[in-house]
UniProtKB/TrEMBL annotation:
<keyword id="KW-0067">ATP-binding</keyword>
<keyword id="KW-0813">Transport</keyword>
<dbReference type="InterPro" id="IPR003439">
    <property type="entry name" value="ABC_transporter-like_ATP-bd"/>
</dbReference>
<keyword id="KW-0547">Nucleotide-binding</keyword>
<protein>
    <submittedName>
        <fullName>ATP-binding cassette domain-containing protein</fullName>
    </submittedName>
</protein>
<dbReference type="InterPro" id="IPR027417">
    <property type="entry name" value="P-loop_NTPase"/>
</dbReference>
<dbReference type="InterPro" id="IPR017871">
    <property type="entry name" value="ABC_transporter-like_CS"/>
</dbReference>
<feature type="domain" description="ABC transporter">
    <location>
        <begin position="2"/>
        <end position="238"/>
    </location>
</feature>
<comment type="similarity">
    <text>Belongs to the ABC transporter superfamily.</text>
</comment>
<dbReference type="GO" id="GO:0005524">
    <property type="term" value="F:ATP binding"/>
</dbReference>
<dbReference type="InterPro" id="IPR003593">
    <property type="entry name" value="AAA+_ATPase"/>
</dbReference>
<dbReference type="GO" id="GO:0015697">
    <property type="term" value="P:quaternary ammonium group transport"/>
</dbReference>
<dbReference type="GO" id="GO:0016887">
    <property type="term" value="F:ATP hydrolysis activity"/>
</dbReference>
<dbReference type="Pfam" id="PF00005">
    <property type="entry name" value="ABC_tran"/>
</dbReference>
Length: 259
């Protein structure tokens, strides 16, 4: 569905090398997570996949088309994007934010409104209650739900998400992760999600692409990475969730014993 071939990106006339020689194939229907620490090149990669940033070299093919040769506006309307920090327009209502792409595509008002209500229900927000609210009148989790609804409005087959659950409390985060995973499956989407949270990537991804210093250092299913990190950096990343899982396992066992 998405292929990157020898993609590199530098800024400041070559002084900052953000992404180096990236080769990556995202399969149709796959949930792929780009994992790495701050500054490893994840956001730059995601923005290159929908043409927001042009690569310095290399090629990106989306659904069979080299994206440097397609109309950029049309391309971006075919790909849903959930931005880091959500990025809802504060002066627009929830419904207007969700209807952004359908409005740009010139959908008739009635169809647009039906779509907004359908999407709000999909992300578990009652349209009667939330349609006319301003983003400032929502909790962080509700705002993130609106961000997801907005990304899905134009019926994209591909969704790119940049740290979508990063700023949420753990309980809301867990709910939204599970809900989004269901949406991804039910709608047959291809999703690429950026995170620096190793546990999140292990729980959500079909495959994880680990980036370090602009390079893709490991690509594999969560179980494959756990069984064989294959790279010292990946082994180091896995230490924390492994330790936490062991401690939680011990506590759960102790809890059972105390009952
Ligand atoms: N427009 C830009 N101009 C100059 N340098 C940039 C620009 N965008 C990104 N960079 C640099 O490229 C590198 C990778 O940045 P990127 O935002 O892709 O990292 P990231 O892994 O997404 O980090 P984070 O998790 O903090 O968002 C960083 O060193 C960053 O400073």
């Amino acid at each position: 569905m998405i292929s990157a071939r020898a993609v590199s990106k530098s800024f400041d006339g070559g002084r900052t090398q953000s992404v180096l020689d990236l080769d990556l194939d995202v399969r149709p229907g796959e949930f792929l997570v780009l994992l790495g620490e701050s500054g490893s090149g994840k956001t730059t990669t995601l923005k290159m996949l929908n043409g927001l940033i042009p690569p310095s070299s290399g090629a990106i093919v989306v659904d069979g088309e080299d994206i440097s040769r397609v109309d950029q506006v049309r391309l971006r309307r075919r790909i849903g994007y959930v931005f880091q920090g959500i990025g809802l327009f504060p002066h627009l209502s929830v419904a207007e934010n969700v209807a952004l792409v359908p409005t740009l595509l010139g959908w008739p008002a009635e169809e647009r409104e039906q779509r907004v209500d359908e999407l709000l229900r999909l992300v578990h927000l009652d349209p009667e209650v939330y349609r006319d609210r301003a983003p400032s009148e929502l909790s962080g989790g509700q705002r993130q739900r609106v961000g997801i609804a907005r990304a899905l409005a134009g019926r994209p087959r591909i969704v790119l998400m940049d740290e979508p659950f990063g700023a949420l409390d753990p309980i809301t985060r867990d709910h939204l992760q599970i809900e989004y995973q269901k949406i991804h499956r039910d709608l047959g989407l291809t999703t690429v999600m950026v995170t620096h949270d190793i546990t999140e990537s292990l729980l959500l991804a079909d495959r994880i692409a680990v980036m370090n210093g602009g390079r893709l250092v490991r690509l594999g299913e969560p179980a494959e990475l756990i069984a064989e990190p294959g790279d010292p950096y990946v082994a180091q990343l896995l230490e924390t969730p492994r330790r936490q899982a062991e401690r939680l396992g011990d506590l759960l066992d102790a809890g059972k014993g105390a009952r």
